[in-house]
Amino acid sequence: KDKRYYDAKFFYIQSKNIDALLKLGELCLDEGQSGFASSAFEAAGRKMTKVDYRRAGDVLLQKGEDNCALGCYQHAGYKTGMFKIGDMFLKEGDLENAQKAYKMANRELLLTPKQYTEIGDAYLQRKNYAKAIEAYKAAGQKDKLKRSYEERSLMYSRQQAGAAIENMLLKITELGLASCWIGAFDNESVQRALDI
Predict the structure, then answer these.
(1) CA 115 to chain centroid
(2) pTM for this one?
(3) Four-residue CA torsion sign, 177, 181, 185, 191
(4) Contact 55, 38 (CB under 8 A)
(5) What is the pLDDT of residue 51?
(6) Residue 167 and residue 121 in contact, taking contact as beta carbons nearer than 8 Å
(7) How does pLDDT run across 64-123, given as a tens digit for each residue?
(8) SS3 sequence, the chain?
(9) Could you give phi then psi for residue 19, rounded to 5 degrees?
(10) Which of 33, 22, 87, 24 lies closest to 55, judged by CA?
């Protein structure tokens, strides 16, 4: 398919058929092919507009090509689309790409402890333990909790930590491994032993 666009563009450029190049650019946009559309339009003396990039982004989003759609929305300056993609990434438990999308839209990613826990659970399902631990740690950040829940924040942080630990223990058991929840230990000894 990509070769077809390239061949058609080459043919139209050689023939200097401006109307055909513009039509080719429109067809490329309908397929979400913003790069080919941009080349065809440029050969016809027309630049891609923000509306063009948004249109290509919408097509790509419908195709499930979220990262490509995000790039088009960034070119378009379409913040609502970037937020939408960020929210989609969050629902999938992809904190990294969600943060990227929100950053492109100049929005800080502020999640509730429950959302961080859900993201941690999603990472656990994918066996990405390092990312799960990061998310669970973020769920227990006291300053974010205080902003959201004020005097109930300590109680909620303990509940979230307990739920996170329980999820990890269940996953460890599912993997056929043994585990033990240790409630009290000497912090300094553990830090020395683990060099942290």
Answers:
(1) 14
(2) 0.53
(3) positive
(4) no
(5) 92
(6) yes
(7) 888 888 888 988 888 888 888 888 887 777 777 887 888 888 776 667 777 777 777 777
(8) CHHHHHHHHHHHHHHCCHHHHHHHHHHHHHCCCHHHHHHHHHHCCCCCCHHHHHHHHHHHHHCCCHHHHHHHHHHHCCHHHHHHHHHHHHHCCCHHHHHHHHHHCCCCCCCCHHHHHHHHHHHHHCCCHHHHHHHHHHHCCHHHHHHHHHHHHHHHHHHHHHHHHHHHHHHHHHCCCCCCCCCCCCHHHHHHHHCC
(9) -60, -40
(10) 33
Give CA–CA dist 185/161, Å, rounded: 17
- Show the tokens assigned to 5: 């666009």
Q: Looking at this protein, which amino acid is placed at residue 173?
A: T
Q: One-letter amino acid identity for 163?
A: A
Given a contact cutoff of 8 angstroms between Cβ atoms, the answer to whether 93 and 122 are in contact is: yes
31-51 burial by CB neighbour count: b if 16+ within 10 A, else e? Answer: bbbbebbbbbbebbeeebeee
Nearest CA among 34, 29, 130, 19 for reference residue 75:
34
Which two structure tokens, joined as six digits, stand for 101?
A: 């999308």
Residue with the two structure tokens 């100049």: 106
